[in-house]
């Protein structure tokens, strides 16, 4: 479904791109690239609905703007898919009216799409993610990062969420200082995001005096993880950190953790990152009760309590759809949209022009009075990272992700 917002059009022939209609006759398109199938489907639908609703309510800018839905998941896989992400990136480039991409949800998918969008002959094409947390997309992390995502030498990827080098480290600090654990098993789902956040946790755990008694991947295709947790028990771990996404058989992993090591309210707590955040299946899973989560932002309750744009948008969302969004990612999706719209409004209506507004000069700022996060939101033109760094600790309580505390970040 595509939703257009009427607006005044700048009558400037210079805004036309070779091979395109003049901007005066075009509606500029923002692709919304998310996994709409599998366990992440509810969260992705709520992001799309919130973006759609916000766009309907936004006063007209200099160009008419529409959104277009792209699914980067497959029913067979039940999550984002490598080949689908590549095909989506090619489709973004092929759509001559498209000027930016909102997404993707998963860091691994963005790492496949970003270089293709960066080499767009009419671009580079701007990409702004609401939920990618792997550091390597914007800063040195693994070999060749982040340069390999920008073959043209010009950056074109940005995000509005806190990265895993902060999130993983904060989880380890919370484990040491608040939970008083001393021996932790660190697991990852063997994907880009999970490996990155688990690495950050393990590195900080060592600095906090926590012994990492095992550090290994779980096989998302396994039928159970009983043997894995029996080994964790034999290592005398007093905490489990599972870095990854719930889509990768996270439900079975959590159930087997509780079966072997006991409830999360017991002597061996489970800590998970935001790859488990906002999944209804996880919220409803009895074995998830008592698990701690970290989220590289503010939760719905925090954003709503702050008043302003978020409060109004959440009220309108509930009025239209009968319930609040599945997670705070819906509002972070709107924040990513606000960054894109600010760039579009200041641009000449071309892909290159939209990208340049974010990555040249002083970059783009959405003022606190307008920003859904309730703070001045600025994208650093040198990196693509956002100035706002929030980290929330939550706990699964009676099927709900309850806010525990905000964790201070440097």
From TrEMBL:
Keywords assigned: Signal
Entry superkingdom: Bacteria
Domain (Leucine-binding protein) ranges: 29-368
InterPro entries: Leu-bd, Peripla_BP_I
Extent of the signal sequence: 1-16
Keyword DNA repair: no
SUPFAM superfamilies the record matches: Periplasmic binding protein-like I
Pfam families, per database record: Peripla_BP_6 (PF13458)
Family to which the UniProt record says this protein belongs: Belongs to the leucine-binding protein family.
Name of the molecule in the record: Leucine-binding protein domain-containing protein
